[in-house]
Amino acid sequence: MTVPIIDTHIHLFDPTRKQGIPWPPKDNAKLYKPALPDRYRKMVTPLGVVGAIKVEASPWVEDNQWVLDLIAKDPIIVGIIGNLEPGKPEFRKNFDRFHKNPLLLGLRYGNLWDRDFHAGVANPAVIADLKVLADAGLTMDSANPNPALIKDLLHLSDTLPNLRIMIDHLPQITIPTLAVENKAYETNLEKFRTRKQVYVKVSSVLRRVDGRVPTDLPFYKARLDQLFDVFGPDRVVYGSDWPNSDNWDDYSKVLAVVHEYFSAKGQAIAEKYFWKNSVAAYRWKKRAANQPSL
C-alpha cells in the first residue's frame, strides 16, 4: 500500500561547524559527518517519506536556534522538538523566545545529558516549567526509556494531565529479567492504556543481539504487539531515529520492519501510524504540497 510517511524522530547536526557539536562523538565514524536536510531528503524520498520532525540532540541552547534557522527554508522538516532544561532559572525566557517560532512543537526531557528525570518530576520548579509547555499546547518527548522512567512518566502524567507526552524509543527498552521487577514494569506499562494524552514512538526498533542485528519482523513482533495492545491504533507514531539508526542498519531496513507490521493491519491503521497520529501528538502543520493533512 502507499501511505505518506512523517518521520517523527530524526537528528540534524553538522560536525564541520566552527563550534563543533556535542554529539555524536568523533570516534563514531558512521555518525560523525553532516546530517542535514538535503542528505535526508535524497535518502527517504524514494521510500515514501514526505516530512520529518527534528528531535534536538544537543544541550546547547543556541542549537535550538541553529536548527530553526536551518529548516526555515526546507519544508521537508515540519517542526522540531527542542532541548531546554525545565527547572533552570533561564527556562521561561528561552522558552518564550523559541516558542515565537511555530516550528517549535515541543521539548525533550528525560534520560539525557546526565539530567535526573526522577528528581525532576518531584521538583516544583520543573513541574511549573512543564506546565508552561502544556499550557502552550506543546508536547514533551521523553528520552532513552528504562523501567524507572516509565514509572516517573506515570507520575508526571498524573501531575500534569493536560501535558501531551511522547515516549521515545520504547521498543529499545531493556526489560528486567528479575520476575518481580518485570512484573512492576508490565504493571506500569499497562497503566498507560487509559492515559489518552500519552503517545508512544515506535522507533529504534532494531536491536543488536549476539553480535547481529535481526531485520526480520518475527524477531520483533511480540514487543510490537505489546505496545500496540497497550497504546492502541490512535497513539502509536513512526520514528526512525536517523542517523543514529545507522548504528544498527540502513534506513530502508529500519523502515521495512515497521512497514510490514503496520501494513498488515490495513490501510486505516497504517495511515494512523505513519502520519495521522503524529498530527494529534505534535499539531504540526504541512509545509509542502506532498504532505498530508487532516
Structure at a glance:
Helix content is 38%, strand content 13%. The protein has 294 residues and is of the alpha/beta class.
Write the layout of secondary structure elements.
Layout: E1 5-10, H1 37-44, E2 49-55, H2 62-71, E3 77-82, H3 91-99, E4 104-108, H4 117-120, H5 124-135, E5 139-141, H6 147-159, E6 164-167, H7 179-190, E7 198-202, H8 217-231, E8 236-238, H9 251-263, H10 267-282
Parallel strand pairs: 1-2, 2-3, 3-4, 4-5, 5-6, 6-7, 7-8
Helix pairs in contact: 6-7, 8-9
How does this structure look, described?
This protein is an alpha/beta fold. It has one domain: TIM Barrel. The chain is 38% helix and 13% strand. The protein contains 10 helices and 8 strands. It has helices spanning 37-44, 62-71, 91-99, 117-120, 124-135, 147-159, 179-190, 217-231, 251-263, 267-282, and strands at residues 5-10, 49-55, 77-82, 104-108, 139-141, 164-167, 198-202, 236-238. Strands 1-2-3-4-5-6-7-8 form an 8-stranded parallel beta sheet. Helix 6 packs parallel to helix 7 and helix 8 (217-231) crosses helix 9 (251-263). The two termini are 19 Å apart. The mean pLDDT is 96.
Query: Roughly how many Å apart are the termini?
Result: 19 Å
Please state the structural category: alpha/beta
As laid out across the biggest beta sheet, the strand order is 1-2-3-4-5-6-7-8
What is the gyration radius calculated from CA atoms? 18 Å
Count the beta strands. 8
